[in-house]
Amino acid sequence: MQRIELELFADYFQFYLQDEDCQNDLSEAWTAEAVRDLLAVAPGIVGVGTMRNMDVPVAIDLREGEPDIQFGDWDHISEFSIDVPSGKLVVAGCSDYFPKATRIPLEPGSYQGRVLCQGLATLSEDGLEGQDHYTVQLWPGTARPGRVIKAWQQG
User: Taking the CB of the first residue and of the last residue of the chain, which one, N or C, has fewer CB atoms within 10 A?
Assistant: First the structure.
Protein backbone atom coordinates (compact mmCIF):
# COMPACT_ATOMS: atom_id res chain seq x y z
CA MET A 1 0.00 0.00 0.00
CA GLN A 2 1.11 3.54 -0.71
CA ARG A 3 -0.36 6.45 1.28
CA ILE A 4 -0.33 10.08 0.18
CA GLU A 5 -1.37 12.59 2.85
CA LEU A 6 -2.66 15.98 1.74
CA GLU A 7 -4.27 19.09 3.15
CA LEU A 8 -6.81 20.36 0.59
CA PHE A 9 -8.86 23.52 0.54
CA ALA A 10 -12.38 22.10 0.29
CA ASP A 11 -13.85 25.20 -1.30
CA TYR A 12 -17.58 24.73 -1.89
CA PHE A 13 -17.40 21.75 0.52
CA GLN A 14 -15.69 19.41 -1.95
CA PHE A 15 -12.50 18.16 -3.54
CA TYR A 16 -11.87 16.26 -6.78
CA LEU A 17 -10.18 13.17 -8.09
CA GLN A 18 -9.84 13.13 -11.86
CA ASP A 19 -7.88 11.79 -14.77
CA GLU A 20 -5.39 14.43 -15.88
CA ASP A 21 -6.81 14.49 -19.41
CA CYS A 22 -10.48 14.50 -18.37
CA GLN A 23 -12.52 17.30 -19.95
CA ASN A 24 -15.74 16.54 -18.04
CA ASP A 25 -16.97 18.44 -15.04
CA LEU A 26 -19.40 17.77 -12.21
CA SER A 27 -21.81 20.64 -12.83
CA GLU A 28 -24.72 18.28 -13.51
CA ALA A 29 -23.52 15.52 -11.16
CA TRP A 30 -23.91 17.57 -7.94
CA THR A 31 -27.59 16.77 -7.51
CA ALA A 32 -29.39 17.02 -4.15
CA GLU A 33 -28.80 13.26 -3.76
CA ALA A 34 -25.08 13.65 -4.51
CA VAL A 35 -24.76 16.45 -1.93
CA ARG A 36 -26.48 14.23 0.66
CA ASP A 37 -24.27 11.27 -0.30
CA LEU A 38 -21.07 13.38 -0.30
CA LEU A 39 -20.26 11.89 -3.73
CA ALA A 40 -20.67 13.11 -7.32
CA VAL A 41 -19.44 11.01 -10.24
CA ALA A 42 -19.03 11.69 -13.96
CA PRO A 43 -16.79 9.94 -16.52
CA GLY A 44 -13.16 10.46 -15.48
CA ILE A 45 -13.94 12.61 -12.43
CA VAL A 46 -15.22 12.16 -8.87
CA GLY A 47 -16.27 14.87 -6.44
CA VAL A 48 -15.98 14.11 -2.72
CA GLY A 49 -18.20 16.18 -0.45
CA THR A 50 -16.82 17.50 2.82
CA MET A 51 -18.40 18.89 5.98
CA ARG A 52 -16.24 22.02 6.02
CA ASN A 53 -15.51 24.73 3.49
CA MET A 54 -11.95 24.93 4.85
CA ASP A 55 -8.65 23.06 4.64
CA VAL A 56 -9.32 19.39 5.37
CA PRO A 57 -6.97 16.41 5.78
CA VAL A 58 -7.19 13.89 2.95
CA ALA A 59 -5.34 10.59 2.65
CA ILE A 60 -5.11 8.67 -0.62
CA ASP A 61 -4.40 4.95 -0.09
CA LEU A 62 -3.30 3.10 -3.23
CA ARG A 63 -3.99 -0.61 -2.88
CA GLU A 64 -3.38 -3.72 -4.96
CA GLY A 65 -6.88 -5.09 -4.24
CA GLU A 66 -10.09 -4.28 -2.44
CA PRO A 67 -9.45 -3.75 1.28
CA ASP A 68 -11.71 -4.92 4.08
CA ILE A 69 -13.88 -2.29 5.75
CA GLN A 70 -14.08 -1.71 9.48
CA PHE A 71 -17.54 -0.10 9.47
CA GLY A 72 -17.33 1.01 13.10
CA ASP A 73 -14.29 3.19 12.38
CA TRP A 74 -16.10 5.44 9.89
CA ASP A 75 -19.05 7.84 9.92
CA HIS A 76 -19.78 7.69 6.19
CA ILE A 77 -18.57 5.33 3.44
CA SER A 78 -19.19 5.55 -0.30
CA GLU A 79 -17.84 3.73 -3.33
CA PHE A 80 -17.13 4.81 -6.90
CA SER A 81 -15.24 3.86 -10.04
CA ILE A 82 -12.97 6.05 -12.14
CA ASP A 83 -11.09 5.54 -15.39
CA VAL A 84 -7.55 6.94 -15.46
CA PRO A 85 -6.38 6.37 -19.06
CA SER A 86 -3.66 9.05 -18.81
CA GLY A 87 -1.98 7.27 -15.89
CA LYS A 88 -2.13 10.46 -13.80
CA LEU A 89 -4.75 11.02 -11.12
CA VAL A 90 -5.17 14.67 -10.12
CA VAL A 91 -6.29 15.37 -6.55
CA ALA A 92 -7.40 18.96 -5.94
CA GLY A 93 -9.78 21.32 -4.26
CA CYS A 94 -12.26 22.65 -6.79
CA SER A 95 -10.70 26.15 -6.81
CA ASP A 96 -7.08 24.94 -6.89
CA TYR A 97 -4.90 25.96 -9.81
CA PHE A 98 -5.12 22.76 -11.89
CA PRO A 99 -1.57 22.77 -13.34
CA LYS A 100 -0.12 22.89 -9.79
CA ALA A 101 -2.48 20.30 -8.24
CA THR A 102 -1.16 17.02 -6.84
CA ARG A 103 -0.69 14.29 -9.44
CA ILE A 104 -0.46 10.64 -8.53
CA PRO A 105 1.04 8.29 -11.14
CA LEU A 106 -1.03 5.13 -11.71
CA GLU A 107 -1.05 2.35 -14.26
CA PRO A 108 -3.51 3.53 -16.94
CA GLY A 109 -6.85 1.78 -16.49
CA SER A 110 -10.01 1.49 -14.43
CA TYR A 111 -10.06 1.80 -10.67
CA GLN A 112 -12.54 1.19 -7.91
CA GLY A 113 -12.51 3.54 -5.00
CA ARG A 114 -13.92 4.04 -1.57
CA VAL A 115 -14.30 7.28 0.39
CA LEU A 116 -14.18 6.84 4.16
CA CYS A 117 -15.13 9.83 6.33
CA GLN A 118 -14.62 10.16 10.06
CA GLY A 119 -14.99 12.88 12.66
CA LEU A 120 -18.03 14.36 10.94
CA ALA A 121 -19.73 15.15 14.27
CA THR A 122 -16.73 17.12 15.56
CA LEU A 123 -17.45 20.37 13.73
CA SER A 124 -17.63 23.58 15.72
CA GLU A 125 -20.91 25.44 15.78
CA ASP A 126 -19.71 27.85 13.08
CA GLY A 127 -18.44 24.94 10.92
CA LEU A 128 -14.91 26.32 10.72
CA GLU A 129 -13.11 23.89 13.04
CA GLY A 130 -13.31 20.13 13.34
CA GLN A 131 -11.53 16.81 13.37
CA ASP A 132 -13.13 15.54 10.17
CA HIS A 133 -10.86 13.46 7.95
CA TYR A 134 -11.31 11.92 4.50
CA THR A 135 -9.57 8.77 3.26
CA VAL A 136 -9.79 7.59 -0.35
CA GLN A 137 -8.85 3.99 -1.05
CA LEU A 138 -8.12 3.19 -4.69
CA TRP A 139 -7.39 -0.17 -6.35
CA PRO A 140 -7.50 -1.62 -9.90
CA GLY A 141 -10.94 -2.90 -10.82
CA THR A 142 -13.86 -2.79 -13.19
CA ALA A 143 -16.43 -0.03 -13.30
CA ARG A 144 -19.44 -0.11 -11.01
CA PRO A 145 -21.95 2.58 -10.09
CA GLY A 146 -21.27 4.97 -7.23
CA ARG A 147 -23.12 4.16 -4.02
CA VAL A 148 -23.22 4.85 -0.32
CA ILE A 149 -22.59 1.79 1.84
CA LYS A 150 -22.79 3.56 5.20
CA ALA A 151 -24.68 6.84 5.46
CA TRP A 152 -23.79 9.41 8.07
CA GLN A 153 -26.65 10.16 10.40
CA GLN A 154 -26.46 13.68 11.80
CA GLY A 155 -27.29 13.43 15.39
Answer: C
Residues whose CB is less than 8 angstroms from the CB of residue 66 and which lie 6 or more positions away in sequence, other chains included = 112, 139, 141
Whether residue 120 contacts residue 76, with contact meaning beta carbons closer than 8 Å, is answered with yes
78, pLDDT greater than 90: yes
Closest CA to 123 of 137, 135, 133: 133
Quickly state the pLDDT bin for 1 (edges 50, 70, 90): confident
User: What pLDDT sits at residue 127?
Assistant: 86
Q: Model-level pTM?
A: 0.95
Q: Distance (Å, rounded) from C-alpha 155 to C-alpha 152? A: 9
pLDDT score recorded for residue 155: 60
**3 state SS of 41:** strand
Coil/strand/helix, residue 93 = strand
Q: How far apart are CA 15 and CA 36, in angstroms?
A: 15
Instruction: Please check whether residue 16 is in contact with residue 91, taking contact to mean a CB–CB distance below 8 angstroms.
Output: yes
Backbone angles phi, psi at 24, to 5 degrees: -80, 165
Asked if 81 contacts 110 with a C-beta cutoff of 8 angstroms, the reply is yes
- Could you tell me how many residues make up the chain? 155
Parallel, antiparallel or unpaired: strands 55-62 and 2-9: antiparallel
The kind and range of the H/E element at 137 are strand 133-140
